[in-house]
Every structure is written in C-alpha cells, then in structure tokens.
Amino acid sequence: xxxxxxxxxGTAASVMMIGxxxxxxxxYAWYASTVHPYFDxxxxxxxxxxxxxxxxxxKRLGQDWTQxxxxxxxxxxxxQGFNAFSIFPSDVSGARGxxxxxxxxxxxxxxxxxxxxxxxxAAFYVGTQLKEAAMLATEELIKSMGGKGNVINxxxxxxxxxxxxxxxxxxxxxxxxxxxxxxxxGNLSTIEDSVERVQNAIAANLGxxxxxxxxxxxxxxxxxxxxxxxxxxGGKQIHFYGIDTDAVVLDAIRAGHIDGTMAQNPFxxxxxxxxxxxxxxxxxxxxxGVHAIDAGVVPVTIENIDTYAADISKLTQNIIDNLDSKxxxx
Amino acid sequence: MTLQLKNISKSFPGVKxxxxxxxVFSASEVHALLxxxxxxxxTLIKAICGIHKADSGSIELGEKTLNLTxxxxxxxxxxxxxxxxxxxxxxxxxxxxxxxxxxxNYRGFGGINWSKLNADxxxxxxxxxxxxxxxxxxxxxxxxxxxxxQIAKAISSEATVILLDEPTSSITANEVxxxxxxxxxLKAKGYTLIFVSHxxxxxxxxxxxxxVLRDGQHVGTRCIxxxxxxxxxxxxxxxxxxxxxxxxxxxxxxxxxxxxDGLTSAGLIEDASFKxxxxxxxGLYGLVGSGRTELAKTIIGHxxxxxxxxxxxxxxxxxxxVADCIAKHNIGYxxxxxxxxxxxxxxxxxxxxxxxxxxxxxxxxxxxxxxKKQRETAHDLMAALDVRATGIDQRVGDLSGGNxxxxxxxxxxxxxxxxxIIDEPSVGVDIGAKTMIHKLIWDLANTEKxxxxxxxSDMPEMISLASRILVxxxxxxxxxxxxxxxxxxxxxxxxxxxxxxxx
Amino acid sequence: xxxxxxxxxKIISGAESGILGAAFLLILLFALxxxxxxxxxxxxxxxxxxxxxxxxxxxxAVMLATGNMNLSVGAIAGxxxxxxxxxxxxxxxxxxxxxxxxxxxxLFCGAFxxxxxxxxxxxxxxxxxxxxxxxxGFVYGISEGYSYRNIPADFVxxxxxxxxxxxxxxxxxxxxxxxxxxxxxxxxFGRQVLATGSNLEAAKLSGINTDRIIMGANLLSAFFAGxxxxxxxxxxxxxxxxxxxxxxxxxxAVAIIGGTALAGGRITAIGLFGGGLIMxxxxxxxxxxxxxxxxxxxxxxxxxxxxxxxDRAREIWSHKARKS
Lengths: 330, 503, 324
Hints:
The structure holds three protein chains of three kinds.
Chain A: H1 2-22, E1 28-32, H2 37-53, E2 57-61, H3 67-79, E3 84-87, H4 95-104, E4 108-112, E5 124-127, H5 130-144, E6 149-154, H6 160-175, E7 179-185, H7 191-204, E8 211-214, H8 217-232, E9 239-243, H9 247-254, E10 260-263, H10 266-281, E11 285-286, E12 292-294, E13 298-301, H11 308-321, H12 323-327, E14 328-329
Parallel strand pairs in A: 1-2, 1-3, 3-4, 4-5, 5-12, 6-7, 6-8, 8-9, 9-10
Antiparallel strand pairs in A: 10-13, 11-14
Chain B: E1 3-12, E2 15-25, E3 29-34, H1 41-49, E4 56-61, E5 64-66, H2 71-77, E6 79-83, H3 94-99, E7 107-108, E8 111-112, H4 114-127, H5 143-156, E9 161-165, H6 173-188, E10 192-196, H7 200-206, E11 209-214, E12 217-223, H8 229-237, E13 256-265, E14 269-277, E15 281-285, H9 292-299, E16 307-312, E17 315-316, H10 322-329, E18 331-334, H11 338-342, H12 349-354, H13 371-384, H14 401-414, E19 419-423, H15 431-446, E20 451-456, H16 459-465, E21 468-473, E22 476-482, H17 491-502
Parallel strand pairs in B: 3-10, 3-11, 6-9, 9-10, 15-20, 15-21, 18-19, 19-20
Antiparallel strand pairs in B: 1-2, 1-4, 4-5, 7-8, 11-12, 13-14, 13-16, 16-17, 21-22
Helix pairs in contact in B: 4-5, 13-14, 14-15
Chain C: H1 2-7, H2 14-33, H3 40-65, H4 73-90, H5 95-118, H6 124-143, H7 153-160, E1 162-163, E2 166-167, H8 168-186, H9 188-198, H10 200-205, H11 210-236, H12 247-257, H13 269-288, H14 296-323
Antiparallel strand pairs in C: 1-2
Helix pairs in contact in C: 2-13, 2-14, 3-8, 3-11, 3-12, 3-13, 4-5, 4-6, 4-11, 5-6, 5-11, 7-11, 8-9, 8-13, 9-11, 12-13, 13-14
C-alpha cells in the first residue's frame, strides 16, 4: 500500500515536471534558511511581485542554517511540483549538489542574498556584491574621518564572503596614504564575541583609533551598541560604518554615535529574482556572461536616514527597467 | 615454566599487604593459593600478573627476572590472569575476543582476514573443549564459557603461567567438572597453573600443591597429599577454631523494634518474615544473590515493597526512599561495597562521618551546618572507634579497609540510629581490624542496645556474632539457627545446620 | 587567625592558588607586553566580561558538581533575554516586574530540565541537548529574530555603570561568588550537591534525596543562566535573541579551568573567579599582541589546554606528596 502511494506521488510529480517544461505551468517558490529579520524584508519584495503580477509564490523557511536542512526541504518542495525557485543558499559551496539535482529535473533556480560558488546551475545571483559594498563603506568611512587616520577592520566568520569583504576594505585603504589599518579583528560569529573582541581591540589601541569598519551584520549590531556606550561615557570620537539597517544601528546613527551603515536592498533581493523567474519561464535566456546582478547598496547617514528607502526602491526599479537590455535575451 | 617469587613485600598506606613472601610455582603443576580475605592473596596475584609493583623482592620466570610494569606487560611475558571480572567485549564474536590482541597478524589486503581468524580461533576453542561457533557474539554465553574463552585467549597469547582467580565461584557443578578437565589437560601440556579459590574441596581435588598466606605472610607450601581440609583451615586461620568468644547478648524477646511480615520485593526477595529485638544481632546468611542484601535494601526503601508489611517500633512503616528511612525511622545501612556506594572516597573523614546529620546540625536561619559540632562529632567518633588516620581531614580513599569500614559504621552512629544494618563488614579488612569491628558490633548491641542486622557470607563471623541466624536460599528465608553464644551450641553442628538450610 | 587558616589551606586550597597563580602570571605577561593593558578602559571592560563569564560558568558548574551537565544554558539565557525584551519593549511593563517574569521563565526551564532528568530518569546530556533545541526554538519563535531595543535606562545602567572604577557587574559577581562559596562550604544543600556528584549511589544510601538535589541544581543552573542573559541585555542596551549562542563551550571551558570536576563532586568559587579571569585575559591578550585573527582559535585552545595541563600536573604532584 505504502509502496503504491509512493509510486503514485512520484509519477504525479514527474508528470507535473514534464508538464512544466512543455506548457505554461510554472509554479513559483521562495526558500530561505530560517527566521531572520533580513528574510522578512526580502519577503516583502516577493509579496509585491505576487501583487503586481497576480502570481502565487509559495514561501518557505527552514528550521536551521544547515545545508542538510535546506536539501531536505527544497527537495520535498520540488517533489510537490515547484519548478521555479528563488533560494538563499545556506552554504555557498554545499548548495551545489542540491542545485545540480534540481536542474537535472528541469527546475530553474536563482540565488538571492548570497551566491553559490561557480560553476553553478543557478541562472542568476541577485544580491549585494560584497566586495563593492565593502569598498563603498570604506570610502564613506574615510570621508567621515577627513581622509586620514587609523582604522580597525572588523570581520565576521572566516570564509569566502569575509575574504571578499576584507579585500574590499584593504584595497580602498591602500589608496589613501594617510589611512592605516592598525588592527584586524575576526571570527565574530556571536554578539557576545563581537562585543568582547571589539572592546579588546579598542583597549589595545585606545586613543589611537579614528575609525572602525564592519562588514558583517552581527559585529555591526554589537559595535553600534558598544560605541553608543563608549561615546556616552565621554570617549574620544571613533567613526564607524557598518552594514545592514538593524533598528539598533539606526538608533545609534540618529543619536550621532556612529556615522552610517550600508543599507542593502532586501526588497530587490525578493522582487528581482521573481521577475527573472517569470521571464525565464516565458522563454527568455540569460545574456552571455551575465550571472550576478548587483541589487545595490545605499549608504545611510543622519542626512538620509528617513528617506533612504526611496533610494533603494529606485535601485530596484532601475534594474527591472534594464532587465531586457542588460541581463536577458530572447 | 617455573615461576619463582623471591622475598616479595608490598605496603599500602596503613597496611603491610605482603611481607617477605617466597614461593615457587612449577611447570606442569596446579598450585593453589589460599588465604582469608585480607591475607594478601589478591595483592600477590596482582604482583604476579603485573598490576602492582612489589616494593622489594624479585619475580623470575624460567631464567629471566621479570620487571613487570602492567597487566599487558605481564601478558607479553607469558603470565595471564583469568577471572570473573575481566571484561569481555560483549558485542564482539568469540573469535574476536580470543584474537583481539593479535588482529594485526590477520590484516590482509582490504581488511581483516576473517575466515583465517575464525579458523584459528576454532583451534583454540578445541583446546579448551568448547564446541561453539567462533562467530557467536560472546555476550550471550555463560560465565563458564566466558572463562574458558579467556583461557583460550591466554593459550593463544602463548601464556605459560595462567592464574585462575576464583574460577568456580559462579558456575555450575557440571561446568566445574569440565573446567577441571581443561585444567588437567593444560597441566599435562606443561603449563604452570595457579588456582585461587575459597572452596577447599576443589583445591583438594584439582591441585598438586597448596600455598597459604595469612596477614601478608607466607604460612607454608605443602603437597596436597600431606594435608586435609582441617589442616588447611588451621594454616589459614592460625588457630584451631576461629570463633571469637563473645558472650550471649541479653535481648528481650518481647521488645521488638522491627518486624517484617511477608515482605516481598518482586524478583528480589519473596515473603520474608522475621522479628528484630532490641539489643540483638540478627544474622542474615546465604550466598550472594540469595536475597539477604536484597531484603536489607528493601527494608531501607532502596527497593520497592511489592507485598507484605514492615513495622518499625510496632507501627506500620511505608518507607519510600532511603532519605525517608533515615529521617523518619532512624535505620542505618552500612553497604557491602563501601568503595562503590558506601563512602565518598574523595572526601575527608569529617564529611563522610557526618553526612546523615547535616540536616540536624544546621542553623535554621542561615542554613549553615554547624561546623564546630560537625568537627566535634567526627573527633568523638574517631576516638570512640579508634580510627587510625592523620586527622579528621584525611581523605577517606587513602585509609586502609578496616578504617574505611569503621567510618561507614561511624556515620550511622553519628546519626544515632537504633537499628543498624551492616552488610559484609569484614570484606577486605585485615585480621586485626576484623576483630575490632566484630567487637564494635557486639558492643553496640550489648552496651548501646542497638538492634543490628548483620549480613555476612563468612560463617565463623556469623556464628560467633549473631544471636540468631536467618538462612537464605533463592530469595527466601529457609530457616533459623541460633548463634554459638546461645546455650549448648557447637560450631560444627551449627555450620552443618546452616549448610542444610542452604542446600 | 585568618593568616594561619590561609596557610593551612583552609581558605585557599592548592588548586585555587594554582588557578589564581596562572591568572596572575598572565596579567604580568600582558602588562609587560603591552602598554594598553593596564589602562582604565581595558581593566573596566576586562572585569566586566569576566563577571559575565563567571555567570555563564556558574550555570554549568553547579550542574557539573552534581555529576550532570546542562547543554541548554545558552538557550535559557537567550529565552530569558527575549522574554525580558517582550515585557519591557512590547508590553511596556516596569523593568523590575519584567525581570521577575524573565527569571521566572528561566526557572521554569530549569524545572523542566530537572523534571525530565529526575522523574523520568533521562540522562542529563540527552535532556539538555533536546531542550537546547526546544528553548532555542522558543527564542526565535517569539522574537522572529528581531531584537528588542527599548530597554529602560535604569536597567542599562547595571551593565554599564561603575563604582570606584570597577563595573557594577564586578561587585555583583563577587557577591554571587561569595554566596556560592558559602553555599558549597556550609549549607546542607551545597554539601549534598557535592556528595551527590562525588558518588550518587553512596549519596542515596546516605539518605540524601538525590532527585531533589539534582532538581535544585537545575534550578540554580537556569537561574545563573537567566541572570547572565539579563546582564548581557543590560550591557548591550538591547535584548538580542542571539544572546547565549556561544555559551556552551565557554561554560564548560571556564568551569573546568576554574577547577570544577567534570565527573562531579568539586566546585570552587575562587577557582571560578580565576577561571573567568584567565579566559578574558587570554582573549584580551591575543588581541593586544595582535595575534593572527585566523589562527586565534588555535591559540585560545592551546592556552586553555596548557592551563588545564598545568593544573593536572599540580594535582598529580600533590597526590604523590600526600602518598609519601
């Protein structure tokens, strides 16, 4: 009996997939690793897509950040007949096995948020270009420091992404002879670690620090809070640029304790991949050599803190307007 | 090969375990090693097989002087011990258990050559007369079979000296006969066999010579044809009868402190009924597992009561836990395994002695234990029981067996228990301490009017101390005999009666 | 009086002096190696982090003392922080009330762990591994990953303020350790915890209600975890659901460096003080001397191992001295 059921389900699934490949029977899915504020914002972009085009998208969250968990859940969704996925790969190298399997079944995948390592079966990657974002943030920081001084470079957990960010920061600093990285702090996976190590780094260079740059979410939240405390208790000003717009970080910008943060475009990370999936289903193909689509970042400072959302919307609109000319071909 | 021990001495803190012992164990001989608990037997065994290093003296095997550093080293030199406690790898097959130390020899291309290993194992199984498939998991085999497998393993490791430590203690008569066949066979093949046992009949049957230890000293080595059972016992105990002369305890038969009626704990003790009087020593005698310790642990609430009634001081008592038992009924239990579940070896004497009274001497407001009172209690008890130690702050694990036992008892005296259950008080203590502990138990009953339940498998101890003895067999009480202090009793007749009730 | 007791090891034992000695050595080393070490800013933050570590370690050490463990300490801390956040931010309750509710939640978690361990008789490793996931699930279920920002300034002052140059948290830690010291030295409960951890069977046969003791240790463990979580909230100025994520290893490391026996039966307040101090000193020192960030964990692990090996060596040596 059980065997019968399995065969029946399997057959039904394959029929659906064949159907999808031939007819206009695309079923859209969005998948993210687990609960996180970032995904909430991405989801808004996905919802907007559904609203704009009247297309239903099934949205799922996993139970944890592991690739295993993602493999199980996404495979199950594919078996249910979903054939157009926008996925946040939990592990940028580990996700490839899953993707290859899905691609073999004729499923279209687009990475959002972070890119799987190439070569990848994913048609596109839509997200922040980490190195470019890090470079932009560093430029902004150096500007706020008046073009000279000592910088502490704060990195998140070691890995491909962190390496790109570190390179970005170091390349920009190298352009300015009067700016020096006096310490690099790394391996900050948790909030407690971040607070402790950054505080240690400040202590190690006390009175000698002009700026701090952080290119990861957790350290940014930690530093925003500890610089708030530091400046409130009368410490000499330390400039800071971080990444992401956690409410804690925005509070610190408003209160003038930190200079700014790089707002990513999570709305675009949600909206753009869905539009691309739709276009691919309609028969469009990626242009040669085009894979990564930079959804852009916007520096947020005290000046634009209440208006930056509009700037981000503009980024998304700009990309959508140029899809046919820059990224897709018929 | 001849194994020669020359002037072996070994001391532990507080006790001289071996004192200048010299023995020769010859090839093609089964040599019994005898002695009471605490005579130094197990220390000598450990020295022979490499677990302990003697303080002085030498061990020679054939022409070679051995300087063993570990059990493994001993095995490498050809000395192997076979006993009940040696771990077998119960999930592994018989063949693996035999060959575990030789797996390297069977490493072929792509793993272990199992068929060759099993075939070789079969050869060794033949040697010990075991007809079982070498691929059987060892866990399901009987104790006797496991023992034979250990012997097979010893042979396979090219042992020349095999120590059999209490090999018959938990196997049936048929299996004993089979084991003895194997032993005789090994003897004929030229092995040196050392046979350690409490069962003198077996010693007389299988052994060629017998060596007796007492108080760490070598009493003598005799050919088996020269001695009989009585002579061996005399060598072991050093006097004709080892009965201590305690006078009769005067307990009022109507003054009942503890009464059990049909007490049962399913699978452990069935339908036990007895009465315990104030100021008497009531003995519980029987083999390990016959129900005596199980009854004790049921009384104190460690095992659940499934049927029957227990009355303490005439009132029905429902004891749910040991904590209950002490708090509400003041019954103390001195465990038979003082090192495992009786004492806190890492803690000092003071702590060990006062654990049950902490609640009574705490300050209700600060919740603090009255340290002054705790110290006084420990000092008093140490003096009263003549505990030999550097002070109340000495670690209990560093004390001798006898002193540890005194502390196990002292803790219940501190708690002022009027009913005291004492399980195997003289296991692993030296002879002097044993006498002192007996005196202590008797005094507690006689002068302090404590009611004592004594559990022991040492018949002389039981007969000389107890006023009445309940005999256990297969989870039931099979009868009652008086102690020797009662009028018109003699040791031989009593031990015969007890033997009958156990049979 | 005090001096003679000190000399005879009645106040500071050999193990404790070893730990404090190692900490002192590290202080000396880093003070010589870096000018930045003895600055007011660094000392303030060092002692503050040490205090937090001590609470983390206490939450594990009281369980270890009974011969059990609690893998869910970080999750309990996270849950306490989130509940506190919900109370003061979303529900806008007064913070002392929120504090009570949050600590009540922590105690409930501890009671749940204890219940499964004692009444259902499940091994502590399995119980707390499961509840680690359960409590973490609640942390994210309730917060959805968002942090709570409106933390009352009065409450934040606890984690940020100072008295005579040392953080409030430092005094809180010293007070707590004093209470712990007193408990394990003088009170029946504390002594029974140690007896239970030293030999469970003997403790049972000595009339100790070991289930009650293990339940009590679970409650204490959860309480310390909860306090630790709340103090992090106070220090950060926001209640982050991620609080507690890195506690598991730290809780064991600090407890063990601090002389708590993994097998149970031993805990020392002075040792934990030293253990927390050693941990912060190592981390602080590595950054002060600009150790390579990618190798940092290897350095950290090696120094922890070295500290423990030194302690083992001292123990073996003292054991030999006692025997002869």
